[in-house]
Amino acid sequence: MGQRIRESGPSVERLQHCGGRPFSTVNIHRLGVALAVLLLTLAGVAARAADYPVGTRSSMWRDPYMIGSFRHWADIFPVRIVPRSGPVSPLPHAADAAAPAEARLDGTTFPIEDYFARARTTGIVVLKDGQIVYERYMQGADESSQFTSMSISKSIVSTLLGFAIADGLVSGVDRPVTDYLPELKGSGYDGVPIKAILQMSSGVDFREEYGSQSDFLDMWEEVVHYQKVPLAAYVKRARRGEAPYARFNYASIDTAVIGLLVSRVTGKTLSDYLAEKLWGPLGMEADASWAIDDRRAAASEVSFCCFNATLRDYARFGLFMARKGLWQRRQLLPAAWIDEATRPDRPQVAPGRLYADYALGYQYQWWAFPGPEGAFTAQGVHGQFLYVNPATHIVIAMMAAWPDFWDDALEMQTYAVFDAFAAAAAH
Q1: pLDDT at residue 14, as a whole number
Q2: CA separation, residue 259 to residues 142, 174, 253, 367, 396 (Å)
């Protein structure tokens, strides 16, 4: 979790000579009132903490621990800090707020408040033209909360690879990943193009299920939960199941390989490279943190998951993507990379081709909406979203604690809610 700054309290001398005047009965009365207010505030904070307790590595996935645990990841797992630096980039509040009461899906309207309750939404920030038109925190969260974003970290890793390519450290996404990670020769990744891995089409035999035993749960237990095996060692176990690009197969192990690639070519941890390329230049307002696979100094980030930051800082990242890598008149990342990373360009990841009756497509660790606007989103299990629409200048960062790992109905309602906010912001 980010660095906590404590304000020192007033000294005895300052209390006794407030403003250079002797301490009076009036001052004592005022101090008593202030102390009473402080105690009531602290009592409220304690009550909120009691309402949302933090669990263990096992209990955090169920109630009553899920909501509190999802903003206290660093109290449960080891993390590496991503430090902020420099002046904070302002996110001004717009003069006119956008607060729609209803959303519409398949010809039926539903109250957005009901959606927030069902989704157990913990926070939402909506930007229009770089200004906050709606900001709200729920379920005991506030603007300083460090929200874990689950697989939104995959989209961050993809963006870091874009920086590595721009820095000349990777010659292009068509190169085999084993040109940079030769230790993967003989594994399922031997000779696989980086692009196929970015598109979750590596051909590696890997089944990702969360509610039942699967390859993902095996990786989670060995690398993250029990920390028996470093991530770099685990990916060597991968075996080929089919040819690269044969089909879309969502596999977190693919992101693990991309993360290891970025660390290898930069000679830096993902956290350090992220601080250098984004967290500092974008003027984030708080340190972030990223889960690591053990407590060694050389530990690897759990690149497919478990990045933690404030909601406004997620929104700043989304705004950077909406502006095609341009930030305060500096082109930090080529606009061509943003376009390439968010627009599906092969048949197996085209919109409508990923799953039966599912409209979205996929590209470089971003989910892409159909249509001419070029909207895209990062997603995380239990209802984490970072939605970006460059055409309408809308960015929405929203965190939640869905009771289930995924809920198809809630996902579609989420996009309807985003449409409602976008429409309200346009007027």
Answers
A1: 26
A2: 30, 17, 10, 18, 25
Helix or strand or coil: residue 183? Answer: helix
Mean pLDDT of 162-191: 98
The dihedrals phi and psi of 124, each to the nearest 5 degrees, come to: -150, 135
The answer as to whether 24 is a domain residue is no
Angle at the Cα of 38 from the Cα atoms of 33 and 40, rounded to 5 degrees: 95
| 35 domain residue, yes or no | no
pLDDT in tens, 65-83: 999 999 999 999 999 999 9
Whether 3 is covered by a domain: the verdict is no
- Contact (CB, 8 A) for 337 and 170: no
The rounded distance, in Å, linking the Cα atoms of 399 and 71 is 10
Contact 111, 102 (CB under 8 A): yes
Whether 15 has a pLDDT exceeding 90, the answer reads no
- Residue the block writes with tokens 């305060």: 328
pLDDT of residue 48: 56
The token pair at 3 is 């660095």
Q: How far is CA 221 from CA 213, 227, 258, 297, in A?
A: 11, 7, 20, 21
- 171 in a domain, yes or no? yes
Residues 398-418 have pLDDT tens digits of: 999 999 999 999 999 999 999
Residue 320, domain extent: 73-426
Q: pLDDT (tens digit, 9 = 90+) per residue, 125-155?
A: 999 999 999 999 999 999 999 999 999 999 9
CA distance 270 to 267: 9
Domain count, the chain: 1
Of 342, 153, 159, the C-alpha closest to 262 is 159
Look at the alpha carbons of 214, 151, 257, 348 in this order and tell me if their dihedral is positive or negative: positive
The conformation of residue 19, written as its DSSP 8-state character, comes to: G
Distances (CA, A) of 144 to 140, 141, 287: 11, 8, 10
CATH number at residue 369: 3.40.710.10
Helix residue ranges per DSSP H, 323-426: 335-342, 408-426
pLDDT single digits (tens) 224-246: 999 999 999 999 999 999 999 99
Using an 8 Å Cβ cutoff, are 383 and 402 in contact?
yes
pLDDT of residue 23: 31
Name the nearest CA neighbour of 314 among 64, 132, 47: 132
Given a cut of 80, is residue 32 above it in pLDDT? no
Q: Is the pTM of this model over 0.70?
A: yes
In whole angstroms, give the CA distance from residue 188 to residue 257: 11
